[in-house]
Specification:
The structure is a single chain. This protein is mainly alpha-helical. It has one domain. It is 67% helix and 0% strand. It contains 3 helices and no strands. The chain is elongated and about 70 Å long. InterPro entries: VapB3-like (IPR039709). This is Transcriptional regulator, CopG family. It comes from Staphylothermus marinus (strain ATCC 43588 / DSM 3639 / JCM 9404 / F1).
């Protein structure tokens, strides 16, 4: 089920849109844009949350990564 969302655009813009009504389905175009924008905003939100979590993690002492890599290589 869908709902109606209406927007106001300047008369000049509507006139320009009408010029391309045979080539572009404006409803579909706007729906796709909104979906794309929402995906982008969700990604940004997730990245902010990940950064917040990472900032709360304790600092790793220098050399720990080297030590783990050596241990992993030596285990083969």
């Amino acid at each position: 089920m869908s709902v109606v969302v209406s927007i106001r655009v300047p008369r000049k813009l509507k006139k320009l849109m009408d010029e391309f009504r045979d080539e572009i389905n404006w409803s579909e175009e706007i729906r796709r844009f909104i979906e794309m924008r929402i995906k982008e905003l969700r990604r940004r939100r997730v990245l902010r949350e990940v950064r917040r979590i990472i900032e709360q993690l304790p600092e790793t002492p220098v050399g720990v990564a080297d030590k783990y890599v050596r241990e992993d290589r030596d285990s083969y």
